[in-house]
């Protein structure tokens, strides 16, 4: 399928699809006319990429975990590598949340001194 059809079927802009390709998240064949052509499983791949982006993962991390997320299934193949990477990302998020809580507390303290 061409990039326009993939865009329509996934609700993702053609610009974003080209970005995903540039980041190594997906591949397209090139026809003799130079147009990108995607396999049918690209729809599922784009949906998984979007889900991982919504979860706050960077494209670098997504590139690492995407091999466990290939195929037509809506979910993920929970291989050990994927679980370990996502556990690490979750721990990082917990640390960031705690740092924000400390910053918020300090700011509340400053405002209370008025």
TrEMBL record:
InterPro entries: DNA-bd_dom_put_sf, MerR-type_HTH_dom, MerR_fam
Domain HTH merR-type: 1-68
Family annotation (PROSITE patterns): HTH_MERR_1, HTH_MERR_2
This protein's name: MerR family transcriptional regulator
Taxonomy, superkingdom: Bacteria
Keywords, in A-Z order: DNA-binding
Alphabetical list of SUPFAM superfamilies matching this protein: Putative DNA-binding domain (SSF46955)
Pfam families: MerR_1
């Amino acid at each position: 399928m061409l990039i326009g059809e993939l865009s329509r079927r996934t609700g993702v802009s053609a610009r974003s699809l080209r970005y995903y390709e540039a980041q190594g998240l997906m591949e397209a064949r090139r026809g003799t006319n130079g147009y990108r052509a995607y396999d049918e499983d690209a729809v599922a791949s784009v949906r998984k990429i979007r889900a991982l982006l919504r979860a706050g993962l960077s494209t670098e991390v997504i590139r690492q975990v995407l091999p466990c997320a290939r195929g037509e299934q809506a979910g993920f193949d929970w291989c050990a590598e994927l679980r370990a990477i996502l556990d690490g990302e979750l721990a990082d998020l917990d640390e960031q949340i705690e740092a924000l809580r400390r910053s918020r507390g300090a700011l509340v303290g400053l405002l209370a001194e008025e």
